[in-house]
Amino acid sequence: MREILEDNEKKFLAYSVDARSNYDALEQLAGLLTEKGYVKDTFSAAILKREKAYPTGLPTGEIGVAIPHADPEHVNRPAVCLGVLEEPVNFIVMGSETDEISVSILFMLAIKHKEDHMTLLTKLIDICQNQETLNSLLSKDEETIQRVLESLYD
Q1: Is the model's pLDDT at 8 over the cut of 80?
Q2: Separation between Cα atoms, residue 19 and residue 154, nearest integer Å
Q3: How many other β-carbons are positioned within 10 Å of the β-carbon of residue 80?
Q4: Do 44 and 32 touch, CB atoms closer than 8 A?
Q5: Nearest to residue 13, comparing CAs of 24, 21, 31, 22?
Q6: CATH, domain range 2-144
Q7: What residues contact residue 87 under an 8 Å CB cut-off, 6+ apart?
Q8: Strands 12-17 and 79-92, sheet pairing
Q9: Would you say residue 65 has pLDDT above 90?
Q10: Tell me, what DSSP letter sits at residue 75?
Q11: pLDDT tens per residue across span 24-59
């Protein structure tokens, strides 16, 4: 895993991730959030458990996205961790039990207050509908990454 961008004041991180599976990618990003103090030690297990029960893969066109999160009791302070995968991994599509999508970008959410969830999710959905933006994120363009992540907090 390689750092692309981190801004503690803006509450976001971006990392390039080399993962073998969706759970590997989730564990790596959750471990990073734990190491940086954003989340509790229970976050990683909670995110994996939630992913199994409520898949997070989104069919967003050419570039698949997943938006995993865990319940607020596992969060110390809010953050969004962007994971740009070196190679796509399969995630189950949100609302499905078996349909898979190849995912290249993860937005892992550490949400401290439930009332913030829908606002953040709405902004992320808007971002995910723009293939040009997703392509810039996938290319690890730091300027675009910073702009996109800052827009989540406007």
Answers
A1: no
A2: 31
A3: 25
A4: no
A5: 31
A6: 3.40.930.10
A7: 18, 19
A8: parallel
A9: yes
A10: B
A11: 999 999 999 999 999 999 999 999 999 999 999 999
Beta strands per DSSP E along 42-147 = 57-58, 64-66, 79-92, 100-110
Say yes or no to pLDDT of 82 above 80: yes
Collapsing DSSP to helix, strand or coil, 58 comes out as strand
pLDDT given for residue 2 in this prediction: 85
Q: Letter for the amino acid at 101?
A: I
* Residue positions counted in the chain: 154
Q: Are 12 and 77 in contact (CB under 8 A)?
A: no
Q: Token digits for 83?
A: 């994971």
Q: How many CB atoms lie within 10 A of CB 115?
A: 8
Q: What is the mean pLDDT of the chain?
A: 94
